[in-house]
Amino acid sequence: MSEMKDMMTRKIFLDVCMGIEKLCAELYHCYSKIYADIPEACSFWKKAALDKENLRKQYEVLLRLLNEIEFDVSADSLKRAYCIQNQLLKLLEHTRNSKPDLTTAFSKSAEIEGSLEDMHAHASISGKIPCASCSRYWTKLSIPMLTLRNVTPSIFM
Description:
The chain is mainly α. The chain is 73% helix and 0% strand. The chain is built from 5 helices and no strands. Helix 1 packs antiparallel against helix 2, helix 2 packs across helix 5 and helix 3 packs antiparallel against helix 4. 24% of the residues are buried.
């Protein structure tokens, strides 16, 4: 029974993570439209959105490989994932209604990316990973592919 519960928890976690990456992509596409008049910023946000779409697809692969990998998802990690998803829903709605300035867009995105990094650090793999490709997918997801902390909006002005 516990094994089935753990499997369902991992599935739910990966589903929520896929949703988070989809919301991030939507947010970044929204930013690319808002800053269409600043070509460098528009390009940056488009690339960021495509990166998030790619990460969502990697979660999809992990979901298909769920029976092949073992990893622990604590209640805290699942709670973090739901909180991040909720934050993103609110941020996306706010962004669509208020069109934030570029500095705010970067700062909010850096906060979200930091939260995602923290969440990945708390969802750890345990046990065996039967194939190198499974390990490769998890490693890619565990290391944020987009680091907004080192980018300042001034480079686009």
